[in-house]
């Protein structure tokens, strides 16, 4: 068995270049598309933005490959992921708080990453290039003789159980729980797993993820650019009869066959790349005086809308950190939000709901639906001795927050049978504490 040593390039939004060391000088000198490329390669541009986008937003990479990606047979619609959908009107919606117990990983049949995609909720339409979809992946076997890409949006992948070995056109990367990967629009990839595997995906139709502006925080903090890693070029020159290219297009899956591996890129350069990030490297900002800060201080990545300061989607985490506020109710405050909040738990227990919110499960608090700490959390935090405390140790919760009002799919409401009908009960024990006395 051959052993591959994973290597990466460091930086976010950078201009990278990489070539497989087995073919030195594969990158053309001084131009993108020479009459004849080194080693008989084909030059192919992958555009992630309009040609005329402002330079700071212009995304593209040049790939130098053994065969151009156009060498495939026609696409045909397939139904190998029957719960992958953008049919937001297929089930009647309510504004109720929703919580799912951990989603089941299949054990009675072999299911790979693509066939294990299940859409939980979302909004918008990829045909209009506006909206999001939130999926979970539930699988137990590696993709075999196939590759996948989305023509609808960027995929932010959050593994919760099991390690993902992701092969892309740009190279290979390994992504473990407490790490994330972003595979951008149009990039082909395959996922290898070793046993039961589960995780979450945020798909954005509008644009690409960016680092949030830091404002008065300064030049450093939150997710630092140098901690984002992009794989280096690694090609395979393999004839593979019946190889399947799977394309998510306008919310449906299509399949085309070709007789070779698509992972035949010998060299590449550009700023439109897949990448990974280790959530443990996040530099936490928090209050050191009083009050609970807004969760926006925990934003790792954001996909902005056209409205200043408003996101199509934010990816937010709640990592281990020190809590030192004085005279403060330290857990998250009670809240009604003009945004939709989808939360998941990678590991540990979330401070505001240590009981029913479990790793591999999820919750959705829809636009303007009240939410906050459960009864037990409120009682404990209201009486706790306010000493410096390291919180969320061994825990990683996250939130996909969106300005869009999301609908839950029929699978999320009914078919998965994981919706907790008693979720509302966690707040019913909150007592009336109103008194004639100003201090109680």
From TrEMBL:
Residues 14-34 are annotated as: Disordered. Pathway: Amino-acid degradation; L-phenylalanine degradation; acetoacetate and fumarate from L-phenylalanine: step 4/6. Pfam families: HgmA_C, HgmA_N. One of its GO terms (molecular function) is homogentisate 1,2-dioxygenase activity. Residues 8-279 form the Homogentisate 1,2-dioxygenase N-terminal domain. The active site is at residue 292. Its cofactor is Fe cation. Its EC number is 1.13.11.5. Belongs to the homogentisate dioxygenase family. This is Homogentisate 1,2-dioxygenase. It comes from Euphydryas editha.
């Amino acid at each position: 068995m051959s052993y591959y040593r994973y290597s990466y390039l460091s930086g976010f939004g950078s201009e990278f270049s990489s070539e497989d060391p087995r073919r030195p000088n594969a990158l053309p000198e001084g131009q993108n598309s020479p009459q004849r490329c080194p080693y008989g390669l084909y030059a192919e541009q992958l555009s992630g933005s309009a040609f005329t986008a402002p330079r700071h937003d212009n995304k593209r990479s040049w790939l130098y490959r053994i065969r151009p990606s156009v060498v495939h047979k026609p696409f045909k619609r397939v139904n190998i992921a029957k719960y992958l959908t953008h049919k937001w009107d297929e089930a009647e919606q309510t504004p109720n708080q929703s919580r799912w117990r951990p989603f089941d990983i299949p054990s009675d049949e072999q299911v790979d990453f693509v066939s294990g995609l299940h859409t939980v909720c979302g909004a918008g339409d990829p045909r209009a290039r506006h909206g999001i979809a939130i999926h979970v992946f539930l699988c137990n076997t590696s993709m075999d003789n196939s590759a996948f890409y989305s023509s609808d949006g960027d995929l932010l992948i959050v593994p919760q159980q099991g390690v993902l070995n992701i092969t892309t056109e740009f190279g290979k990367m390994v992504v473990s729980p407490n790490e994330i990967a972003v595979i951008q629009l149009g990039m082909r990839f395959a996922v290898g797993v070793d046993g039961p595997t589960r995780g979450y995906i945020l798909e954005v139709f509008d644009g690409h993820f960016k680092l949030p502006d830091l404002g008065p925080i300064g030049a450093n903090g939150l997710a630092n650019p140098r901690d984002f890693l992009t794989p280096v070029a690694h090609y395979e020159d393999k004839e593979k009869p019946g190889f399947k290219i799977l394309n998510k297009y306008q919310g449906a899956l299509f399949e085309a066959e070709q007789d070779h591996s698509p992972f035949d890129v010998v060299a590449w350069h550009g700023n439109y790349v897949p990448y990974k990030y280790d959530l443990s490297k996040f530099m936490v900002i928090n209050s050191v005086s009083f009050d609970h800060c807004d969760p926006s201080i925990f934003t790792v990545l954001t996909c902005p809308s056209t409205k200043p300061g408003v996101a199509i989607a934010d990816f937010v985490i709640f990592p281990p950190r020190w809590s030192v506020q004085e005279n403060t109710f330290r857990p998250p405050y009670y809240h009604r939000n003009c945004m939709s909040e989808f939360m998941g738990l990678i590991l540990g227990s979330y401070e505001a709901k240590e009981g029913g919110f479990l790793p591999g499960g999820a919750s959705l608090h829809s636009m303007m639906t009240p939410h906050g700490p459960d009864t037990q959390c409120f009682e404990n935090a209201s009486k706790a001795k306010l000493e410096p405390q390291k919180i969320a140790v061994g825990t990683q919760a996250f939130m996909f927050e969106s300005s869009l009002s999301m609908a839950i799919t029929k699978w999320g409401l009914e078919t998965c049978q994981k919706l907790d009908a008693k979720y509302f009960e966690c707040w019913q024990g909150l007592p009336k504490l109103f008194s004639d006395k100003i201090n109680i």
